[in-house]
Amino acid sequence: MGHSARDPQNAPLIFYFGGNAEDVSVTGLDISDNIDANFVLMNYRGYGASEGAPSESALFADALFAYDALASTTVHNGKLIAFGRSLGSGVAIYLSAQRRIDALVLVTPYDSIRNVARRRFPWLPVSRLIRHPFDSVALAPSLDIPALFLVAEHDEVIPLPHARKLADFWGGSARWVLIEGATHNSIDVESDYWPSIREFLYNQ
Q: Which of 38, 40, 112, 150 has the most crowded Cβ, counting Cβ within 10 A?
């Protein structure tokens, strides 16, 4: 799925990667209402109308496929942005490690799925049970790319220390914006959410 800005040649191209069970068609409407950009959204395998089963390798491969198919063929102003929310932050970071990305928007991100699970289930042998680690913090030091970290004050799914660790290890400039009163799933309806994203993107 793609969407063109009001003036596509003067707008960035955003690759958007959503959270678990997120309907990206709804997200697409929110983005088009709030950001003047060209953007690419896709449902992960097994989500929406997409077939197959989601896995770390499948999501990463699909992100590279979308980038390679569209980055050079879509009209845009030359700026390529990766935007990842929750689960999708790991996909956005992986894409940024593999292809040219000029800036990242990371909403409720994590250091690694394995670390989040270890905190939540300390009595389980998590490293053996979690087959898909999504180890973003391992890639972070090598990424000299501006990133916006948009985090929820009351994130009950990914506790704040996991986003903070990722930001602390980030190789480029890291802008940290705490959305007060927000939870993991309510962050995008808070009044500071879209203005923070617009301010960051328009200054890149």
A: 150
β-sheet with 13-17: strand ranges across: 2-3, 38-41, 13-17, 80-85, 103-107, 147-154, 174-183
pTM exceeding the 0.70 threshold for the entire prediction = yes
- How do the pLDDT tens digits run along the chain, 204 residues long? 567 767 878 899 999 998 876 777 778 888 889 999 999 887 765 554 444 455 778 888 889 999 999 998 887 889 999 999 999 999 999 999 999 999 999 999 999 989 998 888 887 776 776 777 889 999 999 999 999 999 999 999 999 999 999 999 999 999 999 999 999 999 999 999 999 999 999 888
CATH number belonging to domain 2-202 = 3.40.50.1820
CA distance 75 to 172: 27
Amino acid letter, 86: S
